[in-house]
Amino acid sequence: MKKGGDAVLIHAKTQWIVASLDPEGEQQAAVLAKKLKLPLLVAKLLIQRGFDQADTAEAFLYGGIEGLHDPFRLKGMKEAVDRINQARERGERVRIYGDYDADGVSSTTLMTCLFRRLEMDFDHYIPHRTLEGYGLNERAIDLASEAGVQLIVTVDTGISAVAQIAYAQSVGIDVIVTDHHEPPAVLPEALALINPKQHDCGYPFKGLAGVGVAFKLAQAILGEPPLEWTDIVALGTIADLMPLQDENRILVQFGLKQLRQTDKYGFRALADVAGIDLQSITSTNIAFGMAPRINAAGRLDHADGAVRLLTASSEDSAIAAAITLDTLNRERQQVVESIVQQAESLWMDKCEEAARAGRPEPSVIVLAGEDWNAGVVGIVASKFIEKLYKPALILGIDPETGMCKGSARSIEGYDLYAALTECHDLLDHYGGHQAAAGMSIHRDNLAAFEQRLGQLADKWLQPEDWIPKTTVDLACGIEDASLKVIEQLSLLEPFGAGNPAPKLLLRDTVVADRRVIGKEGKHLKLSLSAQGKLLDAIGFGYGSLSSRFNDGTAIELVGELSLNEWNGQRKAQFMIQDIRVEHVQLIDRRSDASSLQSLRKLMAEDSLDTAVIVVPDDAWREAVRHDSSISSKLPIYTYGEFEQAGEKECKALLLLGRPPSAVKLSAVIQCCIAIERIYAVYNQAASPDSQMKSGSSGKGKDRSRPVETAWTADFPGREQFAQLYQTLRRVCPLAESGCEERLATMMGWPADTIAFMLKVFHELEFTTVEGDRISLVVSPIKRELTHSATYRNGLRTAEAEQILFGDFTLFVEWIRKQQQLSRSQVEEGAAVS
Prior knowledge:
The chain is an alpha/beta fold. It has 28 helices and 26 strands. The strands form 6 sheets. It has a 5-stranded parallel sheet, with helices on both faces. A hairpin with a 5-residue loop joins strand 8 and strand 9.
């Protein structure tokens, strides 16, 4: 027998890994909060990020320019400075050699600003992504030689260019390399190599971007940090996903301040086309607004366009360049969408082919298409990771040569670089790291390549590795969502790689209200309640879940606290990234006038593929079967049939039509060990087309017939029976015809209640009926009300009515108890077996 676990209404999209502090960490956080006058939540986050002492935490929160390191601690810096100064003094022609991504463009721009200030004779060169590929190449060196270049300064590239730098030297060109990529085992013999990741470089911070290394060179030459160029550093550092720690944090902080007051035409034009308000710019604006437009130049055209924008010397030229980049970015989005659609079709074909052959889906996604733009295939691979959470390799095929050039993205636990190394015999070229890589391969080797990558995935990955994970910084309650806390959390900014925005788990809250917002109702707005407080929560793309909540739904959310400013008002809100509801959920449609109409609406709004409809009788079954929008989709059982069928794996029960009794409903619920949702789609109607009506009174009434009373909280107690008995003593003998209405008028009670009580008195032999008159029995035998079968049945009915039609909260609690009974029985059975 299968052991049941806690069922859920809404599954989280990812596995939540919730970090927590041990007792010592909690104590340190309390001390830190007191010393620095911080909210405890902020202090806990600082402890988790390694700032457990007041001085280091204070430096992190409030540190400035004094935190920048001496640039001459970088190996090769002195040699580079001396050679550049020499070129300046001699008037030598210098060429900046950059890269086509946003970091390379930023590095080229910063070096341009430096050489302009030094009034040097220089230009720049960035290779074409498609025609030349990454890094130095001999043709570009020949062009430099022809132009009279005597010194090349690389930015964001060059650390692996052993042969190319040797060639440059052979034609009389000195090369200074500034780079931040991982150095290979054999380094080029350049005049100077500046890279903090060199094994014998004593620089204290290894996480600089390419533009960060260029900035340190500028600082060394100028004798002070050129803070006016930190906006350029911020762009490249954030775009290249460098850790926002140590120097990067300081440089990006200054860069954001610089952007808020920038006089650079290029940045102002770029912000304008991206719809960014520079007065309130954040690292997120750079990452998702500016960086994609800078990258679009190198992906679809040539990165020179982005350099022209960032170095523009007039407003008109900046606006023209920004519009061009924005157009390219829109084009890039369309190209990506087109490739995604083609790739999804190829993937579906592969999966269907595997299913026909009785094989599982491929463990690694390898998709290739002719003329797919190599500049965007990495973005396509990322989209497949988001959707399917499998390692993804997307390649463009040159139809003439059959060569494929592609990019790969991976999941945690699958080392792409190691996997490509295992396949090196099939590849022409490859490079990268655990999470991302690039490669070139002939199309004839693709099938073997895909098979080998899949075998490695099956060998290396465990079942839990195929589940995406979300690391949550801390669990918190609604009391932590205050303006003061949010303002203090802003001290942790800028957020990005290495210093992510705090991800919180919001617990112990319930849904107070919910509605869909945005175009076509795609987004969800919740009002959350706990401890007498309310908090708004926004979930982009979660609008479809709205129908699966009720007021009072207990909910857990993962997301970020943010500040909502509207019409001069400021309040806290929670930005939802994931949702989980851990208990069986009741979707309450008991107040709807038409149960069948409610069912049609639910089926249109919600995913009910695994649901089962349970009806009280064949009349309801026939009503459903005659409705073509329902009958062909879901199985239909009566309560008795469902019990006989045994345990059900269905995740959703649709209770259509008034349940026969709470006992019957309990038995059905306990059959469902995997139940997640129960839809109460019924009202008082006993049949699909009529409301249950109380019987009309009349002469010669058959008192053996059950009295159909829809009991709620008005079930008569002993006191009411005593009052009616005293009234009967005054008015008996009483004509039976119309007696219920007469007594109802006298007592102020419903006629159905009077009829029920008279039947109970009759069964207890407190009254007799002779002819058409009711009389009291003289000296009746004393009996308890429970001696009457009608009273017992009525009491059971009343209790069931209170469950089936009563207060929502009580009904939910009753359902959960039935589910607990089900789990207990399953666990007992498992223990016995």
